[in-house]
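ARCHIVE CARD
Drawer: 12
Card no.: 0347
Subject: one protein chain, sequence and derived structure
Cross-reference: see card 0346
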Amino acid sequence: MLYRNDREGAFPPSYYAASAVGAVDRSSLSGAVEADICIIGAGFAGLSTALHCAERGRSVVVLDAHRAGWGASGRNGGQAGAGQRLDQDDLEAMLGVDHAREAFRIGVEAPLLVQELAHKHSIPIGYKPGVLHTNHRARFDKESRDYAGKLNDDYGYDKIRFVERDELAEMLGAAGCYGATLDMGGGHCHPLNLALGLARAAEGAGARIYDRSPVVAVEQGDPAHQIRTAAGGAVRAETVLYACNGYLAGLEPRTAARVMPINSFVVATEPLDETVARGLIRDDVAVADSRFVVNYYRLSEDRRLLFGGGETYSYNFPARIEDFVRRPMRAVFPQLADVRIDYGWGGTLGITRPRLPDFAQLGRGIYSMSGYSGSGLAMATRSGKIFADMLDGDDYDFHVMAKIPTPAFPGGGRWRHPLLFAAMTWYAFRDRL
């Protein structure tokens, strides 16, 4: 997965890479170094962990096979949702009411932390509040209306409300939408700038980040572990964190069995006239629909439509991502049939069976946080503070997340992708019903 669709150390040809602020080409690890903590993966989870731990006086080394922000953290739709990926009704059924409430609290705090870190460290992410979740079938409206009421009444969460179809038509120029929920507790931003800013802040606090340093082995020791890279570099650390998400491959088998890599794709149009842009999304909020194979979209700061749609479950990206995503974009916005697409790119995210993050302690001083299932911008950033708190002795939030069951995908290494493809094909068919 690390090299199948990309060149080593090179950002994809994305709008984010073209508009990034402060991208740095760092050196790879050579020789042997020591640290309190070695983090494998320089995405939101790894960089946030590095920042929070370094600020508290710990020695931190971060290793990435490519470069900071290269993976899903620098390629995603830029949506920072509040709460968890599953609705609270489902979480309560899975976890019980008390556990579900705590998971929800952590998820609500996540986009707030994104904003706090961006402000504190002067990271130019262009954060805008608001996420619309639209229904592509009228029969979903009652459920959405009831759900907004549940969060208002049972959880005291007043950031969300139901939007009736007539009002939604004034807010959104998209075809095939019925009602929606509007959650002002979430928002959207420039994700690569967030990752790059977290990397700068972590280095400013004393963390060491090494690009093009793929880890090939973690040798458990007592008390310290040895982390070895492909080029012969080595880190000696008593604490190791796997923060690889969809790019873990076979490096850590327990997590790899629970986190499935899938590909998602985004395009960016040419800059749109302000009247046209506001006709698409009047209030500059992020939008995601109710399809299982979700369409998600928002406006950039320079009024491009950033539209994500379509997923693939093979390892290879489509030959023409622009054409692959243009089809669902035209279905949602037929008025953009002839608009120019300036950028098209793909990325790999990690999903779990319940679509909830997988937190685990794998051994003495060895941990994993992965499987954000499309909610990583906010939740992976939040996980860094959770991990630093745990090392300081406040492990409550880590255990809230670690107690969420994330069973292995069926089929083992040989059959799990074919089984996932069959299941996703069925759900994509259901989206049309």
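Annotation on reverse: The chain has two domains: 15-76+192-258+354-424, 127-189+261-349. Residues 221 and 238 are 8 Å apart (CA to CA).
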